[in-house]
């Protein structure tokens, strides 16, 4: 049997030059390196320069992903940008990335699922490519959360950072065997009853302003451990793989304690969890491709490895994607 399976050909990342450490933050709000690190695992985050847009970050990550995939921009016919911090309300920042890369083929659009954005975007690309509607996709997660933080609110401004990551995905005719490379499956969930636990208090249709991020931290924490554990277990059950067979877990990087709690709850080997939260903080939709990029650059993820990505974010939204690298 032969079928179209989307294969990830290359990955790239981009972090803005400016690094803001916990010590730097302690000069702005009443906090300390000790408090932030103990509660979250975060030591530093990158902050976009003035005038540096989400689409600029995404373009840099996309260029690196294209180079590593050995794919030319002109051969991309789908761009999906996961972001909650677009350059403008419209048009989609994905079309700015498309224009920056000189692409005129196919379609480009933004997808909004907050911190789960990359998982939702990769799953969307998977379905478009499997159907044969598009051939080669750039899936980008890019964020400038520094622009929607309330820098006087110590309970939120210490948690987030800016950055971008991208992957090139190509539909290939493969046998359909489990050891073929490619995206094996994805699971996506949302529950809008919790939309006020993590939200931005502005928007074009409500206040006419951009607004600032607001969060009920403890409740988000509680739901995150439960939802992430459930989605991993459901994905494993449907795929037929056990947790032991997964080579690498590449989670959304919100908080080390959420990841430790999840690992304990379902018995994951902590050594198999890729963590970048210490240096990147929570970059929302960019965090998974940035973490993938780190684990590919340092040689942890190798071709043939089973990689499980998962995320949970505002909405709530949550999901997982299982890939044979
Ligand atoms: N520095 C010092 N003290 C602080 C800070 C800070 N940056 N922020 C809050 N505090 C204080 C509070 O004022 C409070 O003081 P009080 O007891 O005198 O009132 C105390 O610390 C405890 O505050 P809590 O909010 O109860 O602290 P908690 O232990 O819940 O930790 C945290 C807060 C880290 C935000 C935690 O709730 C959390 O990790 N939640 C998950 C949030 C998250 O990761 N969201 C990301 C988006 S969702 C996702 O991606 C999964």
Structure report:
By secondary structure, the protein is α/β, with parallel strands linked by helices. The protein has two domains: about 5-175, Thiolase/Chalcone synthase (Peroxisomal Thiolase, Chain A, domain 1, 3-Layer(aba) Sandwich); about 180-325, 3-Layer(aba) Sandwich (Peroxisomal Thiolase, Chain A, domain 1). The protein contains ten helices and 13 strands. It has a five-stranded mixed sheet, sandwiched between helices. Strands 8-13-12-11 form a four-stranded mixed sheet, with helices on both faces. It has a two-stranded antiparallel sheet with strand order 2-3. Strand 4, helix 4 and strand 5 form a beta-alpha-beta unit. Helix 3 packs across helix 4 (about 95-100) and helix 7 (about 215-240) crosses helix 8. The longest helix has 23 residues, at about 215-240. It is globular and about 60 Å long. The site of acetyl coenzyme *A (ACO) has 23 residues, from helix 2, helix 6, helix 7 and strand 12.
């Amino acid at each position: 049997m032969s079928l179209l399976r989307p294969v990830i050909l290359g990955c790239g990342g981009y972090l803005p030059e400016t690094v803001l450490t916990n010590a730097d933050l302690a000069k702005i709000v009443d906090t300390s390196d000790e408090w932030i690190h103990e509660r979250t695992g975060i030591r530093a985050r990158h902050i976009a320069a003035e005038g540096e847009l989400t689409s600029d970050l995404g373009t840099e990550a996309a260029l690196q992903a294209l180079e590593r995939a050995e794919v030319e921009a002109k051969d991309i016919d789908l761009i999906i940008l996961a972001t909650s911090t677009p350059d403008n309300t419209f048009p989609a920042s994905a079309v700015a990335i498309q224009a920056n890369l000189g692409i005129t083929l196919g379609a480009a659009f933004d997808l909004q699922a907050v911190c789960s954005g990359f998982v939702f975007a990769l799953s969307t690309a998977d379905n478009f490519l499997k159907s044969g509607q598009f051939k080669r996709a750039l899936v980008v997660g890019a964020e400038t959360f520094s622009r929607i933080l309330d820098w006087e609110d110590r309970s939120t401004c210490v948690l987030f950072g800016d950055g971008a990551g991208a992957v090139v995905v190509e539909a290939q005719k493969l046998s359909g065997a489990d050891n073929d490379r490619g995206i094996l499956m994805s699971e996506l969930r949302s529950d809008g009853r919790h939309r006020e636990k993590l939200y931005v208090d502005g928007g074009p249709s409500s206040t006419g302003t951009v607004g600032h991020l607001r969060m009920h931290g403890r409740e988000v924490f509680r739901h995150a451990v439960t939802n992430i554990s459930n989605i991993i277990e459901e994905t494993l059950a449907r795929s037929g793989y056990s947790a032991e067979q997964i080579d690498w877990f590449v989670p959304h990087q919100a908080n080390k304690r959420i990841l430790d709690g999840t690992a304990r709850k379902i018995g994951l080997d902590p050594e198999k969890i890729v963590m970048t939260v210490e240096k990147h903080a929570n970059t929302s939709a960019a965090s998974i491709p940035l973490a993938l990029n780190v684990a590919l650059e340092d040689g942890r993820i190798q071709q043939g490895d089973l990689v499980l990505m998962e995320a949970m974010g505002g909405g709530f939204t949550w999901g997982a994607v299982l890939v044979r690298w």
